[in-house]
Amino acid sequence: MPAVVVLGAQWGDEGKGKATDQLGSRVDYVVKFNGGNNAGHTVVVGDEKYALHLLPSGILSPGCVPVIGNGVVVDLEVLFEELDALTSRGVDVSRLLISSSAHIIPSYNRTLDKVTERFLGKRQIGTTGRGIGPTYADKMNRVGIRISDLFDEKILREKVEGALTQKNQVLVKIYNRRAADIDAVTAELLAYADRVRPMVADTSLVLNQALDAGKTLVFEAGQATMLDVDHGTYPFVTSSSATAGGVCTGAGIGPSRVDRVVGVIKAYTTRVGEGPFPTELLDDMGEHLRKTGGEYGVTTGRPRRTGWYDAVIARYSGRINGLTDLVLTKLDVLTGLEKVPVCVAYDVDGVRHDEMPVDQSAFHHAKPIYEEFDGWWEDISHCRTFEELPVNAQRYVLALEEMSGTRISAIGVGPDREATIVRHDLLD
């Protein structure tokens, strides 16, 4: 099975880094195909904890080639900060490949992202302010700057000048900010050219040749299904395609090359930023899930909103992505609860919805319809087989599997790299 997609099946922060890293020890390439440094993965290796933002989590697996695909937007400063931090801890980062077609996040887009969000006031989207959205907008407006542009100073300067012709008007006349200097921005970007050059490749060609040779590849999504620009809770979404369809455009491979699509999903639900969240808990139980699960953003440090498992979203994610498997994470966080509710449907103005409402307003007003399951008190962090789980934990997992419509192939029972129950081999 050469090509496996791993993506978030909720609003992100499901533990994709851990799932991808576990696969990474047995695969040849791990490819990030969308997003930028606006999301983070926490990977625990032994006693070491690594927070990755831009880099594919496969960079921690010896012998695995980590790849940043053309669908990613790259903040060069963040890239080298992460590489230097890993190198200082003894991690070999020399295998990293970056698509020559990936777009660069220039400093002026970080500025625009922050001032625009503040300008929106109560209508804020909840962006991380890292220039992701403006850079994707530049890409679509055909005024973006690609990695390959770093190697021709004349072209780079022309592109910077072209982008700033309009953006400086916005910065000065609308937001009362200082105009970005063309020469300074060009020099800032050129300073990275020599260092990034050895990493740059035609990654689409590399990946297709690897598939032809029978290599095993994992495609790792940034963000998650419900943040997808097309299929998420628009407009409270990211600016890229975080679903399985984004693999083809973001990595440069055909859809027929994908063999398995794995959704990573928490045993409850979290979300960062603005937007509707039907099962959100605004009480002591929500705070309990936040503290017990360590629900604070890897990239921003923001406290995550918490709520119960939403089977409607799980079914929707299964359909949108064509999921073949689910990896259920953080089951251990629910230990000690007398009852564990699960959202099985929505009530919208007195009408039951077993599937996602078709319009944004209905979803915004959706009230969860819950089914309760008996909890468990036993410590499950040592469990390595399904049968070792307490009976009530087993029943909970089996119920989620049935309601979600996708088999649960692995279960996370603790933060450690090894704290996982494998029910079905994701590469078999």
Give me some keywords for this one.
Adenylosuccinate Synthetase, Chain A, domain 3; Adenylosuccinate Synthetase, subunit A, domain 2; single chain; 32% helix; 10-stranded mixed β-sheet; alpha/beta; 4-stranded mixed β-sheet; 428 residues; globular
Describe the structure.
- The chain is 32% helix and 20% strand.
- It has 428 residues and is α/β, with parallel strands linked by helices.
- It has three domains: 3-99 and 200-261, 3-Layer(aba) Sandwich (Adenylosuccinate Synthetase, Chain A, domain 1), CATH 3.40.440.10; 103-194, Adenylosuccinate Synthetase, subunit A, domain 2 (Orthogonal Bundle), CATH 1.10.300; 265-422, Adenylosuccinate Synthetase, Chain A, domain 3, CATH 3.90.170.10.
- Strands 9-7-5-2-10-1-11-15-19-20 form a ten-stranded mixed sheet, with helices on both faces. Strands 14, 16, 17 and 18 form a four-stranded mixed sheet that branches. Strands 3-4 form a two-stranded antiparallel sheet.
- A hairpin with a 2-residue loop joins β16 and β17 (351-353).
- The chain starts with a strand and ends in a 6-residue tail after the last strand.
- The model has no long low-confidence stretch (mean pLDDT 92).
Structure, briefly:
It contains 13 helices and 20 strands. The chain is an alpha/beta fold and about 425 residues long. The protein has a ten-stranded mixed β-sheet, sandwiched between helices. Strands 14, 16, 17 and 18 form a four-stranded mixed β-sheet that branches. Strands 3-4 form a two-stranded antiparallel sheet.
Helix-strand layout with pairing:
Layout: E1 3-8, H1 16-24, E2 29-32, E3 41-45, E4 48-52, E5 65-68, E6 73-74, H2 76-88, E7 97-99, E8 103-104, H3 107-120, H4 132-141, H5 153-174, H6 182-190, H7 193-196, E9 200-201, H8 203-212, E10 217-220, H9 246-251, E11 260-266, E12 269-271, H10 284-293, E13 305-307, E14 309-310, H11 311-321, E15 325-329, E16 339-348, E17 351-353, H12 360-364, E18 367-374, H13 391-404, E19 408-412, E20 420-422
Helix pairs in contact: 3-4, 5-6
